[in-house]
Design a protein that fits this description.
- The protein has 535 residues and is mostly beta strands.
- The chain is 10% helix and 42% strand.
- It has a 26-stranded mixed beta sheet that branches. Strands 1, 3, 5, 8, 10 and 11 form a six-stranded mixed beta sheet that branches. The chain has a five-stranded antiparallel beta sheet with strand order 2-4-9-6-7, with no helix packed on it.
Length: 535
Amino acid sequence: MKNGIVLFLIAVSITFTVSCRKDFSTVPSYGNLSFSNDTIFLDTIFSNISTSTYALKVYNNSGNDIEIPSINLGRDNSSFYRLNVDGIAGKSFENILLRKKDSLYIFIEGTFNAASLSEPIYKDSIIFDSGDKLQDVKLITLVKDSHFLYSDLTANQIKNLKNAIDANDKLDEVQKAEQKAEVFDEHETVSIYGDTIPKRILTTNELHLTNDKAYVFYDYCLVPDGETLIIDPGTALHFNENAALVVGKNASIKINGTLDDKVIFEGDRLEFLFDDIAGQWHGLWLQKESTNNQINHAIIKNARVGIYSDSISTVSNTPTLTIKNTEIFNCSDYGIYADATNISGENLVVGNCRLGSLAIKNGGKYNFNHATFANYWSGSIRRQPTLSINNYTTIAGEDESTTEVEKELTEATFTNCFITGNNNQEFEFDKKEGSVFNFLFKNCMLKFSGSAEGDLYLFEDNNYYQNNVLNGENHFRDTKNNDFQIGEESEAITKASLSEAQNTPLDILEIDRTVSPDIGAYQHIIFETEEDETN
């Protein structure tokens, strides 16, 4: 018994001694640290929006375990940057231990108030030690001032309210529905993609967007009934992940870009890594019975659906959307989703999208001249073609039955267009017999290899196909990066209809095409070689 007590006391003593000593002996830093970067560029960021988190690796290449006396931001506590050193957040750190031949991570992020900055480029440093041993790493961020548009209720607040009502056992289902309706009536909302999203009604003063600053949209921002949103050349519009621009009933949008000053629609993450991430925002939504929408010289990128043109009560002869000289690409669903609507397009490029470039659903009326629909999506398997067309809708009944309702496809004319991509068959038809299904491909480059059943795929039928090039050489410059200019080896050269080219005499880059028009949005060019670029 006595021996057991002695052994226990010895063990406790050893444990106490070990736990109270340092893990390793150190010497002060020699000022010879090395770093993964000598300057950290935290890209471009909007005012009051946090940057991504960036990592700096600090190396101790010496043969001694060292202690770094201090790590500070040069602007001290007034800095807009924040650090995390060895899992500890702050702006100032002391006595940081670092083993020989080892390294540690410092994580950096920042949030900036553009109004308090004297210039848009914000600079600071991470300073290691002091005196003649001082070393530093530069931090640089470009801060953009902007207009912010958001509702008075966030998506998370809506979610929390909804969950709180659902969790209230004192309420029956009818009472829960009534309470939700009361909350959501008080705060404008819209249901989309299975979520209830805040809706922001644009005010009169917000119906003319200029290029003085960028605009950052949160939530669903709505052009109200009967109003027109005008967007000036060179205006940049950025959208948060649950945001969209919505044009309401009897409302319109006029996007007035130019060749040199395009109107840009994209997400609100400006870091280089987000430049080609699809699905960062929801898209431009032309709601039921919006009217006379016009888009010229715009770029719409990285959305879920670039443009969703919703149905109209009857197929009017006046286009719901007239779109010219515009590029849409890198969407996680569709470039354009057309639902029983009326679209007129020319010099239009709709590129790589996960599902399809253009989906025409439930009939409608469409006319495209000198458009390039080219889908070379590589982020995942794409099971849908570049172009899909149908003329009916499926309605679910209360007893889980379904009913197919016919919708007339009064016109779908594609003249001087590319319909192509990296799938074998890049267009498909889903026709409901007994209803109108009018389409025509004239002087187009069509990708369709193999065979398909039905009279709609008889390429010798002049009712549907006239003077097309089937499975020809496209010779696009860079399909991966949505650059669909054609080179001198393209079979599209001079194959466009001259009479239709007169209706769109300049290509998307304002190059004349009235003499020898090429198929697609671009007249061909001679691609530069590496030697040409060097010279």
